[in-house]
Amino acid sequence: MCLAVPGKIIEIYDSGGMRMCKIDFGGVIREACLQALPDAKVGEFTIIHAGFALNTLSEEEAQETLEALRELGEIENELDAGAVL
Amino acid sequence: MTSDTFSMLNQFRNANLVKAGISEIHRITTRHWAIMEICGGQTHAILRYGLDELLPENIELVHGPGCPVCVTPLELIDKALAIAAQPNVIFTTFGDMMRVPGSSRDLFSLKAEGAQVRIVYSPLDAIKIAVENPDKQVVFFAIGFETTAPVNAMSVLQAKNLGLKNFSILVSQVCVPPAMHAILGAPQNRVQGFLAAGHVCSVMGYWEYPPIAEKYNIPIVVTGFEPLDLVEGILFTIRQLETGKHVVENAYSRVVSENGNLPAQEMIRLVFEPCDRSWRGIGEIPMSGLGLRKEFNNYNAESRFEIGNIQTKESDICIAGQILQGIKKPPECPAFGTICNQDHPLGATMVSSEGACAAYLRYGRARKGISENQYAS
Ligand code: SF4
Prior knowledge:
The structure holds two protein chains of two kinds.
Chain A: E1 5-15, E2 18-25, E3 28-33, E4 45-49, E5 52-56, H1 59-84
Antiparallel strand pairs in A: 1-2, 1-4, 2-3, 4-5
Chain B: H1 5-10, H2 15-28, E1 33-39, H3 40-48, H4 51-54, E2 59-66, H5 68-71, H6 74-84, E3 89-93, H7 107-112, E4 117-119, H8 123-132, E5 137-144, H9 149-161, E6 167-174, H10 176-185, E7 193-197, H11 198-204, H12 210-216, E8 220-223, H13 227-242, E9 248-250, H14 262-271, E10 272-279, E11 283-292, H15 301-304, H16 320-324, H17 356-362, H18 372-376
Parallel strand pairs in B: 1-2, 1-7, 3-4, 3-5, 5-6, 7-8, 8-9
Antiparallel strand pairs in B: 6-11, 10-11
Helix pairs in contact in B: 2-13, 8-9, 9-14
Bound molecules: iron/sulfur cluster.
């Protein structure tokens, strides 16, 4: 139940007084409630949980995490190289 | 956001990066550490990707109570069954609840006998059903941790907004921090570090955790659900343990901020208030749950439906409570994979897509760490 997945907001609209949106999960489109994300915009990524958007996803933070891990990989390679020499 | 974002996010499953993280864990680990992932979704991801088998032997992952279906008390499941059996009711629920055994049956068998039980993806779908069926009482089984609390609160607010008289929720809403206190305070506790549940934190933030880290000298690392997220969470935790630190770190910063989602927290506060809750297999944990505020009593299924005295009866064999507290692992249960399996579950931990017993059986961890004899007994 907590394994919420990220998707892209492709449309925002009002339905019965609720801020709603259409989300693209890599090809599959679903509806979700955007009431807790008043500032979210079309094109942003969000984590959806039981039809409810919990948070927008920060692309910069994602890149930073990946960068840090890539560096770790490079250090590994250097260590490996050192071990061979 | 660019259209490449999907492929960038796929990098969180990149095997080379996972390998780099795992090697770093091997490099820095010098002794045995027991780390608990709180969330059952993480337990499943760890077993699915085989991360447990890639870690150093002396790193033990202890599986936590973060499976909402598993901790929903038997009494409430029996209440759900009693409500769902009433003729004028459409009972709606997340799919995972269907096969959870009550004292004598489950929602699935009730449905097979003709009761109106419907699986919904969201409580907001249950609202639609209530609008379409004004002559029926529509009840939603509002279970979950802080991740489902906002949408469950939203459903009540929306029912009020629309003036619905035929919608109510049966609440079993639990909170993570009191459970962490209960686990760490127990005399048999073995947990030395926590992977905090990323999506719970995406709602609540992690400002509640520093006092816990401080009080119990325990590292707490907010962790996501992709293989790379989990490896990073474990790496950060071991780094702290190996260097004698015990602080709160965020290894899921693309989704989680310290303060969490404030409008979502506000919705929760508006509709719910803290209350004591009992956790299936664990027992009552003070102020560990959320209950509907008095102003919303009209939407409380427990007040709307008169349910007579419920006599609960747990399976004599099932040790799910000990599994949920990280005291035992599924293969230590004599029924595991024999008389208890996914077709005939004896306990909720065998049913849920977040339950540890189901994960162990599904991903073939039947005999890990257990001698042949013990397994057969
Ligand atoms: S294997 Fe079945 S009986 Fe044993 S603890 Fe898990 S759910 Fe309960």
